[in-house]
Queue: 2 jobs
Job 1
Amino acid sequence: MLLGVVAVALGGLATAQESQPQQIVVPLTRPDKPGRLILERHQGSISVKGYEGTVVLIKAFLRRSTGTAPSDRDAEGLKPVSSAAIQLDAHEVDNVVTVDAHSRNKSIDLDISVPARFALKLGVLDDGDVIVDGLTGDVEVNNPYGRVRLDRLTGSANVNTVDGDISVRFLGVDTGVPLAFTSVHGKIDVSFLPRR
Amino acid sequence: MEVPEPSAEMGQKFQAMLEEAKKARFLEDRSPVRRLSPFFELRPTLLPRLAAALSLIVVGWFLGYQVTPRPERARIDFLVSEVREMKTTVMLAMLENSSATERMKAVQFAQELSGPDEAVLTALARTVNDDPNVNVCLMAVEALAVYADHPKVREALVQAIVRQESPLVQLALVEVMLALNEKRAVEPIRKIIASPLVDYSVKSKLEATVRQLL
């Protein structure tokens, strides 16, 4: 039983929608079962929160220009064509949600809500941090240049950075599953929260 | 009927016979083993003979046990190889899993296989080169380093150095090379040092390693 849901949201007019976030909702084939979110080669920050719902909510915000706006003199008088458009795709097959968000030249910050029992596979190319909160599942993050923070995690984690710090707070870990945290220059902080 | 008169010697003779009988009885009582049968007689030569016979029986049984082709034994051997094969297949399949955690488990699995065959070693070498997750690569390097005596493994590790982009994996491989004192690694390490992408802190470590290897 395969059900694919494809949602494509294209930002229309650059001027009118520059500050408008794009949002899509992805239902799951089997809402009662754990799911998995895959988001790789992303440019920008990713924040994933576990919540009580049964659908995946994705909000994409275009990063405000951080001083490196393309203001070439040669390009004066030329208007970039829909440079502010966010292309946000999400695609679900058998509880595995694959997300792709990109925009020309700019970073996109994603704010994602998923059902609490969800596994993640996140990869950030550049220019962003990864924050994950309140999930039960296997979380895999690869963010060479930014920071990674996993809060209130139950399950297992596999995190790799080059420059960024890693901070992980476990509520509980799966037994018999390898956990791995590596960083070249960053600090690694793994802790276990006391059970209440 | 005529009864002969008891002679004068009769008393003495009787006494002598009585003494003799008593003596015999006495000796018989004192002898430790009753003469029930000659088989039970403990002669000093019997013990080593018995021992020899027993040991022959044991040796014969043992040889027979070893030599006899037994179906259950062949079956166990077959099952052992079957399980190994299955473990290898499972491990190879797990290495293809999209979850890095599963792939790490696969590498752990490979480490547990005693004396992994070529297919496993090749798969591990491929993991070192191609796995997108740095942590999985690092684990595979560790797993392969155990079999670094194997010339093919050594060759694969040397070949892997140039292909690594992650500074951590580069460092791990270089450390293995240093431990093995593998001089062939010098060229690939120099190639990384010359690369514009090299991490500045890794570079000094690489340079130090080259000096140590030469």
Job 2
Amino acid sequence: MKKETSIAVPPVEKKRSFFSRAIQQWDLQVLVLPGIILLLIFSYLPMYGLIMSFQEFRIGDFPGMSEWVGFKQYASLFQDPNFFRALRNTLVISLLKLTIGFVCPIVFAIFLNEMRRQGLKKTVQTISYLPHFISWTVCALLMFDLLSVDGGAVNELLLSLNIIKEPIGFFQNGKYFWGIALLTDIWKELGWNSIIYISAMAGVDAEMYEAADIDGATRAQKMWHITIKAIKPTIILLFIMSVGGILNANFDQIMMLTKNMGNAMLTEYADVIDTFVFRYGISMGRVSFGTAAGMFKAVINFALLLFANKIAGLAGENALF
Amino acid sequence: MTEIKVHNHNKMKVKKVFSDYVIIILMAVIMVVVFIITLYPFLNSLAISLNYADDTTLGGITIYPRKFTLDNYKNIFTNLTIWKAYGITFSRTIIGTVGGLLITGAMSFALSRKGLAGRKVYTMLCLIPMYFAGGLIPTYFLIKTLGLTNSFMVYIIPSLVNVWNMILMRSYFQSVPEALEESARIDGANYFTIFFKIYWPVSTPIIATIALYFGVFHWNDWYTTYVYVTDQNLRPMTSVLMSIINEASFAERMAAMGADASAIGNAVKGKAVNVRSITMATMITSIVPIVAIYPFLQRYFIKGIMIGSIKG
């Protein structure tokens, strides 16, 4: 009897229009609508704003109502050497983060999983999350101090080990910047990014390890055949998502480490697409030109995400969508 | 059967092969390195902030203060700028977190109900911005056109909805047994009651997690102020700290305000020391609340991330 009603109800519901159903469940609609309206305003209106990149924005114009110029902004963008410099820096920093920066939390999680002392494991874990919770402002301040020429801990250590004769000016020479961007990112997010792998490992049946013990498996074999196998889907999923963000060099991080791009010694290696967009589009007022660079970034990111997702699908792995 | 297992297990533990030792040593090295590298900068700054400014110039402060003092903290707390900035940071964190939880929470609850009219369309609307965003400049003009620049509301309104947080919360609400909703419906409860009185109280783990996410975002946000706010009275701690780091004159002014007249008259060198001590004291002050809270929320946010990873 009960079954019959539950089967019979949906077709009736389906026939009724969206509006009559929405009015009937007005309370549920009231819960969802404020969020949807805010989303339409703050996420969708900016998408519409991208049409400024096909126009010539002049001060005083209402955004999106300027004169149409077609692909003129893109043409001048692709002739700008500074744009290619920003593209190069973004790609290098992102690829470093996507390779070395991506592997580090996995290695950390795998070795943390090998720790038998639970109390110690918990302590290391808790400490490792700490930098995630501080702002890039604080992080940059700590790094300026740590890498300072004048008594910074890193220089002191290298000097005392006789690895260098003179203290290194890490922030006085652009060639160190890519490395600094990578290492500070790892420092900040290592523990946090490892949580997801640790959770995935926690889902492994303890009997798997016991069975492996009986078969005489070594630690290395268990790590390879059980632990890493268990987190493989997670690794692939996160990798796909990271590929989609390849042109998003962390704006906050770059701005802080370069003192709001005020450190001219670093610009050659530190200027990324986001800082480029900001400088041209907002500081210099070349709005349409800056928007074109932003549009370029959004489109490439989206295409890369689709591409990575397709590859994962072809490889027989769980794809994102 | 169990006994045999235990026996075997113990036997395997005794017989360690060479590669086992390599792994144990590697593990110990990695953990020690992570432990030291993570903690050292914080402890070093804490030590500097608690050390006599003049003594700090001599260098060599590691993880404990050589000459203990609270003067640096006294100096910064006699400064009105810090109090104002702290007030802004606190109020935006509290209002932003509560508002975000309400709006994003209500939205995710509604989207987790199968019977929601228009559910598919709403969900699509939420997912698209995750992969394609208008970006920096269009958002800038939007905020400007809406008249949110130089207003406290610029800290709150644009961040009320966060799609990532919405998805995490939605997954959690979906995992709550539907019987809860059905029995309440039979009793004639509307969806407000069901959400606030029934689902909200049983969702502590996810609410704590999302509250932490919103809270950390608001506490640490520097970008919004940098781009949209020029009013000195609306500057949060991160911006004040940034000014201290970037503008030597700003820090000197702050150092001088708290110090007595003789200290201001000191040599340039003495002033510079004060700047470093003041910077560190300000920094420590700005991170204390978050650092004190996150260890207690740890088990919640780990669960929160797990939910997210299962649902992808």
